[in-house]
Design goal:
The complex is a heterodimer of chains A (about 200) and B (about 100). Chain A has about 200 residues and is of the alpha+beta class. Chain A is built from 5 helices and 11 strands. In chain A, strand 6 and strand 7 form a beta hairpin. In chain A, helix 1 packs across helix 2, helix 1 packs across helix 3 and helix 2 packs across helix 3. Chain A is elongated, with a radius of gyration of 26 Å. Chain B is α/β, with parallel strands linked by helices and about 100 residues long. Chain B contains 3 helices and 5 strands. Chain B has a 5-stranded mixed sheet, covered by helices on one side. In chain B, a hairpin with a 5-residue loop joins strand 2 and strand 3. In chain B, helix 1 runs parallel beside helix 2. The longest helix of chain B is centred in the middle third of the chain and has 11 residues. The chains are: A alpha+beta (about 200), B alpha/beta (about 100). Chains A and B meet through strand 5 and strand 7 of A and helix 2, strand 5 and helix 3 of B. Strand 7 of chain A pairs antiparallel with strand 5 of chain B.
């Protein structure tokens, strides 16, 4: 029976170099065989040790399960250690990966598009040719998707200035534009009462 | 450059289909020769894997852009690795003729 097909792993961008070479008098004399570090293993090292994410967060970034990420990471460490101890070259290539692409939105025809070729900079909308495009931000967009169902206001205790509360921005970290006082939250509805009202 | 459009009919008055993998017809439009070809989608009634099968068809025609109003979750990694550009147009009332007019800006 053939083994189960591997899920494509998401890699943010290809590494800046193709590999590493040992140096010194003994370099490359004993073992000439190259250690092949796969792209997914490079990405696992980058996420876990360079970006200091935990395995759970990193596995989500790569689109694999947490145990799979841990296996990829263990294999990466094994290969790097082998190359260092035995003085072998490391070449970074291969692996079952795809490179994540950036998304853009055109302000004229309101279409969304991605740029699969990272080395080419997009300037025009591929659909209508308009040059008014901007990078599509998933984080901001998802906030807009969840309409803030709080009708609260941020109030300045000093001068009484009010502004509508924005979901995710704590009032006590904002300053009043009029008198630079720290703001406080004014609830239009008591959350405890609301809970009780629900059947 | 060849552009694939997901259409729900085989005329120029047909509109953009709501899904890519299970759309009725693919329109392959060549922006240089202005030629177009309507391909009926054989994966329309598949229970599973319609998206990847449709990507195969598009890739075998050497199209490098796809216009649809939705793309499924299995397609994105595939298209990224094949370097095919995805264009999401959230206007299902647009006809194929209108989209082709937009392309020939």
């Amino acid at each position: 029976m053939s083994p189960r097909i591997k899920v494509l792993r998401k890699v943010l961008s290809p590494p800046v170099i193709k590999g590493f070479k040992p140096y010194g008098l003994q370099a490359g004399q004993q073992h000439s065989e190259v250690v092949n570090l796969l792209y997914e293993e490079y990405e696992a090292l980058r996420l876990s040790d360079y970006d200091k994410l935990n395995h759970h967060q990193a596995s989500i970034m790569m689109g694999v399960s947490r145990p799979t990420f841990t296996r990829i990471y263990a294999s990466a460490l094994q290969k790097v250690a082998k190359a260092m101890v035995e003085g072998r070259q490391i070449s970074i290539e291969g692996g079952k990966v795809y490179f994540d692409s950036d998304w853009y939105q055109c302000s004229d025809c309101h279409c969304y598009f991605n740029n699969p070729q990272k080395d080419i900079v997009v300037e025009n909308c591929p659909l209508c040719g308009h040059d008014q495009i901007h990078q599509f931000d998933f984080v901001n967009e998802s906030e807009d998707d969840h309409p803030t169902n709080c009708e609260d206001y941020c109030v300045c205790p000093g001068c009484g200035f009010e502004k509508k509360h924005r979901f995710g921005d704590p009032c006590n970290q904002q300053t009043c534009p009029e008198c630079n006082h720290l703001m406080i939250r004014k609830r239009s509805t008591d959350p405890k009462k609301q809970k009780n009202e629900k059947p | 450059m060849k552009i694939a459009i997901a259409s729900n009919g085989n005329t120029l008055e047909s509109t953009l289909d709501l899904s890519f993998g299970r759309c009725a017809y693919f329109v392959i439009y060549d922006s240089e020769t202005k030629a177009m070809e309507f391909i009926p989608n054989p994966n329309r009634d598949l229970e599973e894997g319609a998206g990847p099968a449709s990507v195969n068809i598009i890739a075998s025609r050497n199209a490098n852009k796809i216009i649809s109003s939705e793309f499924g979750v299995k397609i994105k990694p595939l298209l990224d690795s094949l370097k095919i550009q995805m264009i999401v147009l959230k206007e299902p009332t647009k006809t194929i003729q209108q989209i082709i007019n937009m392309l020939s800006h």
